[in-house]
Amino acid sequence: MDVTRTRALRLLASGAALCCFLALASGCSSPSSGSERDASVTRAAQAAAPMTASDLESDYQKVVKDVLPSVVQIQAGDDLGSGVVYDDKGHIVTNAHVVGDQKTFQVSTAGSEDTLTARLVYSYPDQDLAVVKLDKVPGGLKAAAFADSSKVELGQIVLAMGSPLGLSSSVTQGIVSATGRTVTENRSGGGTGATIANMVQTSAAINPGNSGGALVNLDGQVVGIPTLAATDPNLGNSAAPGIGFAIPSSMVKTVADQIVKNGKVTDSGRAALNITGRTVVDDQLRPAGVAVVEVKSGGAADKAGLRAGDIITRLGDTDITTITSLSEALAAEQPGDRTSVTYTRNGSEKKADVTLGEQ
């Protein structure tokens, strides 16, 4: 059910009813009889009735019924996570941090006590995505539908489906709180350390075990893969309530399609300087830039004239103080984009134009 469209129709109907009422009140003539006018007003009033709680509840239940069979629980060694059925051939997309360094997995589908086995196809930690494949595809396996995440809107109602804390087939509800977030995962928190752009922020509860599951709109389409919750340093780095992030569905499809077709990611779409770097600090032990440790031959930095020992302090108009800030700045760019790199060499500041490469 298209809730947005339904509401729009109801608003239009409401406007029509109002116009009709104004026309009658002002004495405008109509060729129809009085009884016909009364019936018309009644029908318009019925059409303009607001959506009730039971209507919204029915929408939720329909989405859960349609999508939950496509969300699975994945056991990777001692760890539990979630996954989404990608196609009818048994491919399942999940987070790279869910699969970890495991190669084989136990998979449980919603509404079934049977445990299926699966094997890793490919893990891509740079985008925190992975694809596993069931050894045997059960009958009736249903692939999820993936939305165009560029059309996700602020305030849109979404449901998060997965296995938080091992509670399989769990559903939480929230809204899209923001789009276009760039987030860097904390390795110590179980993430891959990846910097991921264009994340969907949601108020739907995201707990350990939700990772790799589905963030779904009321059309029953996956708009993102829930990946992590924000942490609050003031609360001992515990999860901050109502601030979760999902990898946008369009990026999920871009990566998963390549893995299914080629067994690996061949086109990351992620900009890079093609260097190995590390954070350096100043005399007061404050982060002060990224030291170039190694330059890939023929890469973007190499062509721009950078070399080992240079310290990068700006990318375009963005100050660079840490390797994370450099990753976040690059996440906002595309391979082939032209920008500038400001760096110091032997104490002197220099600037070079660079055409970004691919990670």
Structure overview:
- With 359 residues, the chain is of the alpha+beta class.
- Among the domains are: 3-51; 147-253, Thrombin, subunit H; 271-358, Pdz3 Domain, CATH 2.30.42.
- It contains seven helices and 21 strands.
- The chain has helices at 3-25, 34-47, 53-67, 96-99, 249-262, 300-304, 323-331, and strands at 71-76, 79-85, 91-94, 104-109, 115-124, 129-134, 145-146, 157-162, 170-184, 195-202, 214-216, 221-232, 238-248, 271-272, 275-281, 287-295, 311-315, 318-319, 338-345, 348-355, 357-358.
- A six-stranded antiparallel barrel has the order 1-2-3-6-5-4.
- It starts with a helix and ends with a strand.
- Mean pLDDT is 86; it is low at 1-33 and 41-46.
Keywords:
single chain; 359 residues; alpha+beta; Thrombin, subunit H; Pdz3 Domain; six-stranded antiparallel barrel; 21 strands; 23% helix
Radius of gyration: 26 Å
Which strand order does the major sheet show? 1-2-3-6-5-4
Largest sheet: 6 strands, antiparallel, barrel
- Assign a percent range to the helix content: 10-25%
Q: What is the CA-CA span between the terminal residues?
A: 40 Å
Characterize the overall form. elongated
Overview in brief:
The protein is an alpha+beta fold. It has helices spanning 3-25, 34-47, 53-67, 96-99, 249-262, 300-304, 323-331, and strands at 71-76, 79-85, 91-94, 104-109, 115-124, 129-134, 145-146, 157-162, 170-184, 195-202, 214-216, 221-232, 238-248, 271-272, 275-281, 287-295, 311-315, 318-319, 338-345, 348-355, 357-358.
